[in-house]
Amino acid sequence: MSQATAQDYDSPWKEALEYYFADFLQLLFPQVCQLIDWTKAPVFLDKELQKITGTAADGRTYADKLIQVTLCDGKKSWLLIHVEVQGEPESDFAARMFRYNYRIRDRYHKDVVSLAVLSDSSSAFRPDRFQFSLAGCEIDFRFPVVKLLDWRERLNELLNSANPFALIVAAQLQVKLIPDPTQRLNVKSQLIRLLYQRRYSRDQILELFKLIDWMIRLPDNLEIQFKQIVDQIEQEQQMAYITSVERIAMQEGRQQGRQETLQETLLKQIQLKFGTAPNWVETKLHAADRAQLDLWVAAILTANTIEELFSGRV
Questions:
Q1: How far apart are CA 52 and CA 108, in angstroms?
Q2: N or C: which end of the chain has fewer CB within 10 A?
Q3: CA–CA–CA angle 158, 178, 199 (5° rounding)
Q4: Where do the structural domains in the chain lie, given as residue ranges?
């Protein structure tokens, strides 16, 4: 990892939403959580979502999940969770929420509850409604929104919460508010210490450790210091969970996650620019390494056809 460590926010959010879906709703959308029959397992509809989402023209990154749940009255409903992870306000955010909602309804004929999580640092940016009115024709689409910035004054509540997703929100909030790498090291170490003190199961500790480690990235020199701190915490707690082998696996997992995200983004860009892509395109994307994917991301800006994009002549 380079000194100028790039943040990869969307991948950990996608994994966190899948692993801690119920905890996510309980913490951030309790009014929705109580409507769901949790004896029936949620179904994640990644393929269905991929068919209706496009790539933002400005290159923004989103962590979206489409999930089928069973309500307490026995009815099935779909939840679209849209996490804006880029960190800057988007002028047409409400329009995007409406567009995704009606695309799902139009394509799959399902009732959809759209939920939004905003991770930007602008207290004034709070889109929760899309409106249109002309010549007696009106649209008024409203959706629940959680602003992570609102938890800034409730940080102690997050740190003391028994809900495991609270640590993920705390990590996201801190990394947005604290740019200094040394301070981030202190925050990351505090969160990991709390993780061990909570006496979660080994699997939960490994998963939460991976997510926090993924969200709060550090320069190489501070990563070495962080490893030493983790070793010290494990000795204090007598819980040797994060072995060297597991750290290597986590690092490889992060790299694989970033590559898969890049493949998905490039495929969406191709579909957005050229229309439906032939099957061989997806095969080619999955076979490519990170360096080749980066070249294609740059080349798609000037390529006139799919064939030209992959020819290497752009």
A1: 10
A2: N
A3: 35
A4: 1-177, 179-240, 246-311
The rounded distance, in Å, linking the Cα atoms of 182 and 218 is: 9
Total count of residues recorded for the chain: 314
Nearest C-alpha neighbor of 12 from the set 181, 177, 205, 207? 207
pLDDT of 96 higher than 60: yes
Q: Which residue has the tokens 């689409």?
A: 141
Compute the distance between CA of residue 192 and CA of residue 277 in angstroms, rounded to an integer: 43
Instruction: Decide if pLDDT at 196 tops 50.
Output: yes
Please count the other Cβ atoms lying within 10 Å of the Cβ belonging to residue 181: 15
d(CA 100, CA 110): 12
Point out the least confidently predicted range of 147-156, 242-251, 295-304: 242-251
Question: pLDDT digits over 157-177, tens only?
Answer: 999 999 999 999 999 998 888
Which residues lie across from 79 on neighbouring strands? 67, 113
pLDDT of residue 62: 65
Q: Dig out the tokens for 77 from the structure.
A: 């409903």
Q: Kindly report the number of other CB atoms within 10 A of residue 260's CB atom.
A: 14
Nearest to 115 by CA among 101, 134, 132: 101
Top mean pLDDT of 4-13, 215-224, 290-299 is at: 215-224
Query: What was the pLDDT predicted at 149?
Result: 92
Tokens of 17: 């939403």
Task: Choose between 201 and 43: higher pLDDT.
Answer: 43
Please report, in angstroms and rounded to a whole number, the separation of the first and last CA atoms in the chain. Answer: 29
